[in-house]
Structure formats: C-alpha cells, structure tokens
Specification:
Elements: H1 2-13, E1 14-32, E2 38-58, E3 62-66, H2 78-89, E4 95-101, H3 112-127, H4 134-144, H5 148-153, E5 156-161, E6 165-169, E7 176-181, H6 188-193, H7 207-215, H8 218-224, E8 226-227, H9 230-236, H10 238-249, E9 255-257, E10 264-267, H11 271-280, E11 287-292, E12 299-302
Parallel strand pairs: 1-8, 3-4
Antiparallel strand pairs: 1-2, 1-12, 2-4, 2-5, 5-6, 7-10, 7-11, 9-10
Bound molecules: adenosine-5'-triphosphate.
Adenosine-5'-triphosphate is lined by residues 71-72, 76-79, 106-114, 116, 147, 188, 259-260.
C-alpha cells in the first residue's frame, strides 16, 4: 500500500513532453508593420525531430538544466518564461525543474525555443493539475512569441499576420525530408534586419503550393518551395548555396531554407532517395537529418520512460516517383 502510494506520487510529480521542430515550406514578406514586425505568410510543417523535456515538480521556483551548455538556464530561456507565465497567471505556488534534452539545433530556423515553450505550457497543465483551457493556452503561447501557438497545433498550417494567424491545412504524415544545417547559428532578428524589400501586392501567393501539396504533386511542390529570406542569407553565407547545389545534384525535388535559416530542407520521394542525398553531403562539415512530416500537435505529453521517441512514430509512407531537380541555387540579386 505504502509502495503503491509512493509510486503514484512519483508518477504524478513528473511529466515528459516532446517538443517537435517545424520547417517552413515557404515564407513570403508582405509588408513592414508599425510595430516593427514584418507582415508575413508562411507554410509551417511539423517534423519528427524533437527536444525531450522532463518537468519535475519542486516546492517552489523555476530551474532549468539542458544537454546544451550554450543554452541559457534562466529567464532568457523561453521554456523558463513559459513556466513563469503559467505560475503567475494561475498563482501557482509550486515550482518546477525543467530538464531539456536538446536535439533541435539552436538558432537554426527550426523553432527550437518556441516548441520548448509550447511544450512547457502544455506539460505544466498536467504537472500542476490545471484545467488546460485551450483559449488561455493559446493566448499564453502568443504572448511568448509569434511562432509558439503553431506548436500547440502542429501539422501543416498557413500562418499569416506576424505569423500568429493560423489556418490548419490537411497533411498526410510521413513525407521524407532531408535537413542540412551548416553548423552556424543565425539570429532571427538579424536576418529580418537585412530585409530591404517586400512583395509589392501585399497579398500572399502560396495558393499554388497549398494546392499542389493537397494534390500530392511532388514535382510541382518541389518547384514551388520558396523563402524570401533565403537570398538575403545566401548572399552573406555561401554555404547555404553550396548545400542547395549538393542536394539538387543528388536529385532533390526541391530545396528551400527553413525560416530565418540557415537550415536547408530538401524533399525526397522515398527513404532510398533521402539516403542518396545524405550520401552526397558526406565529408562536408554539416549536420544532416532524414525526417518525416508529422500531423499535429507538435508539443505532446508522452508516457514516462524509454520508447517515447518520436522517430519511432515516423511513418515511412513516402510517395515513390522519379527524382528530378527543379529551380536553381542561383538567387542572384533579383529578389533583393
Ligand atoms: P525561429 O525558427 O523560431 O526563428 P530558431 O529555431 O531560429 O527560431 P531558436 O533555436 O529558437 O531559433 O533559438 C533562438 C535563440 O533563442 C537562441 O539565441 C537561444 O539562445 C534562445 N533560446 C532561448 N530558449 C531557448 C530554448 N529553449 N531552445 C533554444 N533556444 C532558446
């Protein structure tokens, strides 16, 4: 009896949350707002690369430890800020220790900090026995950052405005992606600071890509991937162009930079096709992942213990077809 009470207590005092990354299949700059943000339209997609976060109840306070020593462990960590927000909003007197196993590269355009924050918001509902009102959760997410609400929803989403206006789109899981990161960080704010243009019409042109994705037309999807920030980054970091050239040379359907970079995403038709792209990057000083798209939500509470890895869930149902490169890796200065 005593043992079972103790076990129940242990089970209640820890919550394990998975925090998946996102990629941007397209990103358009539509205007500059008075509040300093850019008006954007972007197509976000959850993928099965995830940080693992263990929340452990404490009597008071918020502490963080992380597998990545470069990450801040105080209020500069978005996960810490998420916990403080919940504590203050609900006047929770209890505390939490947040352990982050960082698997998403930092400052890579994959939303690592934002997904951690969403995961902490979600996990604390369980840990502290709150009621998890979805509206409130969404408002908290938005106050932490424009990207954060996406991770509560996940899947494939059109994000507009500053990135906070979300429309879910149908998405089948298991499309293969190859991600290549050149192992240097980019600060989102810096990249947006380089923007000297916006699309003239002020309305987005993502309709054809959304339609091609819905129809599962891989060749069309590949040719329609685009990111208005990519030429700005490529002009300053030639490695981005090199990655693009290597992936296209290995038959990628399409290659695009994710978010504010510098991670590049390539579409593959199948696992062997993805493996060929990975082979082409061998010997380069880059980090490479073969991933699959996932349905939402991107932040998920998981059972405690081993075997909760998202990769196991990755569905390898990829459409097969002939690989064909589209577009080019020469952005020139036309878009700048
Ligand atoms: P986005 O794609 O949303 O623009 P990103 O993936 O490019 O973001 P992040 O990995 O979120 O960038 O990191 C951006 C900055 O946020 C880094 O300087 C990092 O120190 C800080 N940061 C704070 N908390 C975290 C966290 N939990 N995980 C990663 N970075 C964090």
């Amino acid at each position: 009896m005593i043992a079972s009470t103790a076990l129940t207590h242990i089970a209640r005092s820890k919550v394990f949350v998975e925090a998946q990354a996102k990629v941007n299949l397209a990103l358009e700059l539509l205007g500059k707002r008075d509040d300093g943000y850019h008006e954007i339209a972007t197509l976000l997609q959850g993928v099965n690369l995830a940080d693992r976060i263990l929340l452990e109840e404490r009597d008071d306070g918020i502490t963080i430890s992380s597998s990545d020593p470069s990450l801040p462990e105080g209020p500069e960590n978005l996960a810490w800020r998420a916990a403080r927000l919940v504590q203050e909003a609900r006047q929770v007197s209890r505390g939490v220790h947040i352990m982050i196993e960082k698997r998403i590269p930092v400052a890579a355009g994959l939303g690592g900090g934002s997904t951690d924050a969403a995961a902490v918001l979600l996990g604390l509902q369980r840990l502290w026995g709150l009621d998890g009102n979805p509206e409130e959760l969404r408002a908290w997410a938005m106050s932490l950052g424009m990207d954060v609400p996406f991770f509560l929803r996940g899947g494939r989403v059109l994000a507009e405005g500053r990135g906070e206006r979300l429309t879910s789109l149908p998405s089948r899981p298991g499309h293969h992606l190859v991600l290549v990161n050149p192992n240097f960080p980019l600060v989102t704010r810096d990249v947006y600071g380089w923007v000297g243009f916006v699309r003239p019409k002020g309305t987005h042109g993502l309709g054809p890509l959304i339609a091609a994705l819905a129809r599962g037309e891989a060749a069309a999807v590949g040719s329609l991937l685009h990111n208005d920030l990519e030429p700005l980054v490529a002009a300053r970091y030639p490695e981005v162009g090199e990655i693009c050239t290597v992936l296209r040379g290995a038959g990628a359907r399409g290659v695009v930079m994710s978010g504010s970079g510098p991670t590049m995403i390539a579409l593959a038709d199948s696992a062997p096709h993805a493996a060929a792209m990975v082979g082409a990057t061998r010997g380069r000083p880059w980090s490479v992942w073969v991933l699959a798209t996932t349905p939402g939500p991107a932040a998920r509470i998981r059972p405690l213990g081993p075997g909760a890895a998202t990769e196991r869930e990755a569905d390898s149902r990829a459409r097969r077809g002939r690989a064909g490169a589209s577009g080019s890796c020469d952005w020139g200065v036309a878009k700048r």
